[in-house]
Amino acid sequence: MGNTTRGRIDKRQAILEGAFTVFARQGYAQACVQEIANEAGVAKPTVYNHLTDKATLFRHAMEAGARTALEERLAALEPLAHPGDDLAATLTDVAHALLRLHTGGRWCALRRLLYSEVTRFPDLLDVAAEYGTDRLNQALADRLARLTLAGRLRAADPELAAEQLTSLLFGPLEARTRLGTRTPEDAELRELAGTAVRTFLTAWS
């Protein structure tokens, strides 16, 4: 890949990251392209050269943000590939990592923007379907199926088991975070992870 192409990709990535930051801070209606250009460190015409208008920029920024959030959550599952002797401890660490990501800035911003702008941008539902919790559950189900084959779990239905684990983790958060307006302390997230995993293992091990 030539330097020109690489530079164009890097600049586009900077614009999308800058746009997501501004949209998360200001909302769609209040965000302006000049502020996005400033955040990305590029000239305003450069933004229009890469993404033709504010609506297109918003769609692409949301997709890029959702893709990054999914990649982070999939990476958090990696310890389950080699969980060691203490499966409960590894599951709790994974659950804690998922909770930290779920209550972190990027994921909270994605949810707020989705809820506030979905009537204006109904195609955001496709982004949510492609990069949201369903994809996380699919990947988690694969990990749980492998653990079942190895004799570490009794998850006859790994997809259901994955759905129940993420429900145990994320279900209480709407109330605990006051609809995303409060960030729980890390100790609270660790306690929630431990409780969810103990309940999960009671049913599936």
Describe this structure in a few short sentences.
By secondary structure, the chain is mainly α.
Structure description:
The chain has 205 residues and is mostly helical. The chain is built from eleven helices and no strands. It has helices spanning 3-26, 33-40, 44-50, 54-76, 87-102, 105-117, 124-131, 133-149, 158-170, 173-176, 186-204. Helix 4 (54-76) runs parallel beside helix 7 (124-131). The N and C termini lie far apart (49 Å). The model has no long low-confidence stretch (mean pLDDT 92).
Lay out the secondary structure.
Elements: H1 3-26, H2 33-40, H3 44-50, H4 54-76, H5 87-102, H6 105-117, H7 124-131, H8 133-149, H9 158-170, H10 173-176, H11 186-204
Helix pairs in contact: 1-2, 1-4, 4-5, 4-6, 4-7, 5-11, 7-8, 8-9, 9-11
Entry keywords:
205 residues; mainly alpha; 74% helix; Arc Repressor Mutant, subunit A; Tetracycline Repressor, domain 2
Number of H- or I-type helical stretches: 11
Record field, number of beta strands: 0
At the fourth level of CATH, the homologous superfamily of the largest domain is Tetracycline Repressor, domain 2
CATH fold group of the largest domain: Tetracycline Repressor, domain 2
The whole-angstrom Rg is 19 Å
What gross morphology would you assign? elongated
Provide the β-strand percentage band: under 5%
Assign the CATH architecture of the largest domain: Orthogonal Bundle
Measured between the Cα atoms of the first and last residue, the distance is: 49 Å
Order of helices and strands: HHHHHHHHHHH
Helix content: over 70%
Main pleated sheet:
none
Which segments are poorly predicted (pLDDT under 50) over 5 or more consecutive residues? none
